[in-house]
Amino acid sequence: MDNSKPLSEQYAEIGAQWADADAAASLLEGCRSAYLSQKMQFMGDKPINRAEAIVKASPDWQDYNEKMVNARKRANLLKVQMETLRMRHREWVGEDANRRVEARL
């Protein structure tokens, strides 16, 4: 984070990144069953439970799940950065209020 920028600008930048990352993670999560179904279609005339087991044991399924989890992790880390900025702002507001009270005394 660039500390020379105002907190509001930093928050907006991280917020935009989080929105993109959250959308990407949500898309992967939402398409998971469709991805499974597409892969099962290529199994031919195998019973559904057997086709599902084969797909779920495949490296492709492992890769998909890793991408999905990593996308959610990235979104969550950006969310933490946003919340950190929000807390820094609250700390600043509190310190500023304390300085004003001390100046009056």
Walk me through the structure.
There is one protein chain. This protein has one domain. 85% of the residues lie in helices and 0% in strands. It has 105 residues and is an all-alpha fold. It has four helices and no strands. The model has no long low-confidence stretch (mean pLDDT 93). Helix 1 runs antiparallel to helix 4 (59-104) and helix 2 packs across helix 3 (48-56). The two termini are 36 Å apart.
Structural class: mainly alpha
The count of β-strands is: 0
Give the distance, in angstroms, between the N- and C-terminal Cα atoms.
Answer: 36 Å
Count of alpha/pi helices: 4
Taking Cα atoms only, what radius of gyration do you get, to the nearest Å?
23 Å
N-to-C series of helices and strands = HHHH
Query: Main beta sheet: strand number and arrangement?
Result: none
Features:
rod-shaped; about 100 residues; about 0% strand; mainly alpha
At a glance:
This protein is mainly alpha-helical.
Itemize the secondary structure elements and their pairings.
Blueprint: H1 7-30, H2 32-41, H3 48-56, H4 59-104
Helix pairs in contact: 1-4, 2-3
